Amino acid sequence: MLQTPSWWQTGVIYQVYPRSFFDSNGDGIGDLSGITSKLDYLRWLGVDALWLSPIYPSPMADFGYDIANYIDVDPIFGALQDLDILIQQAHARNLKLILDYVPNHTSDVHPWFQESRSNRTNEKRDWYIWRDPTPDGGPPNNWTSFFGGSAWQFDEQSGQYYLHMFDVKQPDLNWRNPLVRQAMYDALRFWLERGVDGFRVDVLWMLLKDEQLRDNPMNPDWKPGDPAYARQLGHYTEDQPGIHEIVREIRSLLDSYGERVFIGEIYLPLSRLMHYYGEMLDEAHLPFNFQLITTPGWEARTIRQVADEYEKGLPDGAWPNWVLGNHDRPRIATRVGREQARVAQMLLLTLRGTPTCYYGDELGMQNGYVPPDLLYDPQGKDNPEHSRDYERTPMQWDSTANAGFSAPGVTPWLPAADDYPTYNVAAEQQGPRSFLTLTRTLLNLRRSLPALTLGSYQSVDQENDTCFVYQREYEDQRYLIALNFSQQEQIIKLPEQGQGRILLSTHMDRADTLDLSEFRLRGNEGLLIQQEGLI
Ligand code: GLC
Asked: How far is the centre of ligand 1, averaged over its atoms, from the C-alpha of 483 (Å)?
């Protein structure tokens, strides 16, 4: 049992994609002052921490995940002072602020890379991964970039290839070089001293690569049309020996600043993901658990299995977490439909562990339409279907032009999704059964019922496998969550469970008492039920 849980254990994290949140200065791109002006909304909604995707100076080849200076703010987003204000204003509202930290690669215009590429004897040459061509002039091995094509780029001037696991404008840093580590840790210190509450660390599981640069096996299941990142199996580019030492170093640095959170972006199978908590729980606090995003299909049976196996696989004392959407994957309301997304939201906010919500998902926002000539994301360059621009369209604030994201008359960097006149904050705040009202009610319940944050998790056996039922229990309180993953009405039979009182239906229209031995869930309905007369 937890003695004093940390804020990142009881709290809910909300991901802001700064370009798309709120444009306060009419240039069509969201900014830091825009985020500050919406803090009251986030407080009203009931989240506890904001994670900002990168806000550092960048040529924006990968929208800020290509950093040209780790210790400043890009003028598109404002100035350093605007970030100080945002931190201070967030803290004044009891909101935490988490920054994105991108250690795997810099931008190719970062001064370190400029120096490194200038000639083979430069003292920063070894800060990146340079190799000679093969005798026939080809790249040093078969590694492919996550965005398509070879991960090696030939540099005419110095006659060697450099490694870029992502875009050609994102050269990979050499984390085997202690000077790189020191410089990158200095960047962390810079922000910790300014008061940020932690970091989401980008591509954490790929920081080290095989020293011998052995070829990766190709993924036998990959077919043309699948995303480029799945083309190879990352045997020699992912989760390499030595990585945990780095993860521990980052953690101990954060710990030296008190209660800061360390979240790791890690796409790995469960058993390997768990290692990132550290043998002594001395690595990431929250290795991101992406299974609600990556598990194929959306079926009660599979999701139950995922939740049970995750719970079972957690090391002793490790704190779980769940992610339903992010800036890299299609939105949940697009994947499963807006009605079923309400069930998914109840799932996210009632499972055990820290939830991370992607901006706009609280409205039931769907992927937007982006005309081909506006697609920009490097992941879409080989196949526009895989562009991530669709899930990055402007936050839908109200029904005025540009969804209230940019002033009328301004052309936002991406157009607002067509359905914004109906699905937006202002309209949904008025709707007693809107997606937003549902999300806010769930967040309120989560805050007021300790069982939903601190309680145990136990899935419940029952025969209807289109529904997932589980229990959260804490001291003398017990709650059942019953989720219908289908569009049809379903009957659930739970022997020996007594009576229950509905605290919330995702349809937001019932609060009756149920006989738990047999009850009905309408299509796309989820229920949060307080069990009575048991304890
Ligand atoms: C992470 C980010 C993604 C970015 C990539 C390269 O996966 O979430 O947006 O493109 O890293 O930095």
From this structure: 32
